[in-house]
């Protein structure tokens, strides 16, 4: 029963996020309104979502039984509690139409059911032959093998279902941010096709990566997300005591590292893969 309640919570939260994205599609992606500035504004807003998701997950310790295939023993399912919750949540969200949104990418695409709601007519912004890219396997591995232990404390408090639900919120927020690289690549290509076409025709990944890399911008992003982790993650008190100053729910340096080592590099991989098929 608890798992079902958590699935419904994640679905409702996802529905709100999908609504806001649908509005963004209408407002900034229609016709010729897509600009690098509008895409960057969305990426900045998504930083807030990711930082808050990490803070929420940090409420719980590692809770390793949530990831142990031998723990849950769910009839008819072989896998961890986390995998079960993600698969079942995505199946329910698919029936509600979540994955008809071009910016949503499931972690278990083979288990989705058709949408039961009328489809929304999203404006076609992305180049159709290039939309197939899905980096969620890499995102999953990065999150569980590298990131999680950096900000979740060791230990076990028994809140395995809540922990898995928080993991899913983090995963979906990171997936949305990283796959937004398709829009970044599209708008960059539209603004300067002459810069990208030679490398695309040569299928030169290194040249495309060089064109897409702006180290000064990346440094600003890392500093901004670290500052957000400070602002969002500091305890708010009404007294003048200073003992909690400098204590954060998630270490800002880890959020900066997340963006520097994984989010931005994976986003650029999405951009490169998208551009390689932009002239198909």
Secondary-structure topology with pairs:
Layout: H1 2-28, H2 36-57, H3 69-72, H4 81-95, H5 136-151, H6 160-179, H7 181-191, H8 193-201, H9 205-212, H10 215-233, H11 252-276
Helix pairs in contact: 1-4, 1-6, 2-6, 2-10, 4-6, 5-11, 6-11, 7-8, 7-11, 8-9, 9-11, 10-11
Note down, in words, how this protein is organized.
With 280 residues, this protein is mainly α. 63% of the residues lie in helices and 0% in strands. The protein has 11 helices and no strands. Helix 2 (36-57) packs across helix 10 (215-233) and helix 7 (181-191) packs across helix 8 (193-201). The longest helix is centred in the N-terminal third of the chain and has 27 residues, at 2-28. The chain is globular, with a radius of gyration of 20 Å. The relative contact order is 0.16. Pathway: Metabolic intermediate biosynthesis; prephenate biosynthesis; prephenate from chorismate: step 1/1. Residues 160-271 form the Chorismate mutase domain. Residues 1-18 form the signal peptide. Keywords: Amino-acid biosynthesis, Aromatic amino acid biosynthesis, Isomerase, Signal.
Core attributes:
mainly alpha
Summarize the structure.
By secondary structure, this protein is mostly helical. It is built from 11 helices and no strands. Helices cover 63% and strands 0% of the residues.
Give the H and E element order.
HHHHHHHHHHH
Helical residues, percent: 55-70%
| Largest beta-sheet characterization | none
Per DSSP E runs of 2 or more residues, the count of β-strands stands at: 0
Strand content: under 5%
Helix tally equals: 11
**Radius of gyration, taken over Cα atoms and rounded to an integer in Å:** 20 Å
Shape: globular
Q: Write down the overall mean pLDDT.
A: 89
Uncertain runs are 1-5, 11-31
| Distance separating the two termini | 48 Å
Computed structural class: mainly alpha
